[in-house]
Description:
Strand order of the largest sheet: 1-2-3-4-5
Number of helices: 10
Number of strands: 10
Structural class: alpha/beta
Mean pLDDT: 89
Strand content: 5-15%
Order of helices and strands: HEHEHEEEEHEHHEHEEHHH
Amino acid sequence: MSLSGGVKRIIDDAIDRIVHVKKRLVINHDYWRVDQFINALPKVYIYDLPDKFKPSHRLSLVSETYFALYDFFRLYCQTDDPQKAEYFFVPLNIIQYQFRNENPYGVLKYLNYFDPLHHNHLLIALGDYSQRSKKNHFGHAYLETYTWLNDFVLLALESTSDLIPEHDIGIIPYNTLSTKPEFNKNKRPYLYSFIGEISHSYLPNNHIRNQMGAIPLKKDIFIASRLNNNQRKELINNYYTQNDYELVARNSLFTLAPAGFGRWTYRFFQAIQWGSIPVLLSDDYIKPFEDSIPYDDFCITIPEKDITRIDEILRSFSPYDVMRLQDALENNLHHFTQTGFFYKLCNRLKLQIKH
């Protein structure tokens, strides 16, 4: 019996997904070391949802955080006994629905152990905008918020005051972490820099990115969407990497980390990973795990209204101030490893069980 083209594609996609997941689990198991905090691991029951809810690899950059968390829960926390579970993980990557302006509320009928009185169901929220209000929404995606999220614990990249304290957890984007961060001690010709999208048609004219793009450039300032070949060749003499974002950061004392569509920003955590003092320009962003990470020792937070004074502010730091910040940054890099992230997340989840 021959299969139709459509059925064969569905079967092939399912097989590819199974093979991909198994390969990813093996790789991640080799990377992550949880023996140091084995007692902090929460017991998590993972729902097996119908195929129509299973995440795809679209929006691959932001979805890396989803798959990393899914793999971690499956490798180290999973229990098949719902009676022993401290949390219930719903493997739904809701950002994929938000970008299509679809509402996957139909998933609720498959959550057999869901009880709104017990805040123990976990959802991963990777969107640029708040999941709990219409604040700070730009463009054509996320036209409506999901009211049914209110009874779920969100693990959210958009870590702002919209999250419910001691309920939701602001998280670090997984793909800004590494197994062993390196602090480079080479010459850094830029006092401060930003490489990336400076403006977008969906962002209002008074947005921090547009204002940042108006900063007068000097020899020791780099603010642009990309490097040219001459700039790249010059910077590579100080530190070699094929990643232009990393190359600019490793050649900068300070890296500007402005808000984008959301309050959270890759650049803040990339700067830390690449040894450049991050300068956060994102009002209402709450740094993840700030109760256990001394951010103020190694990063600068500047209100967006002071963007016009950014040059004055950063030039006011003495060489001693810069050295102190760099030393603190190097000494705190262990917080920004993959294992360090999972350790903090597990501690927070266990703490919330006790409360």
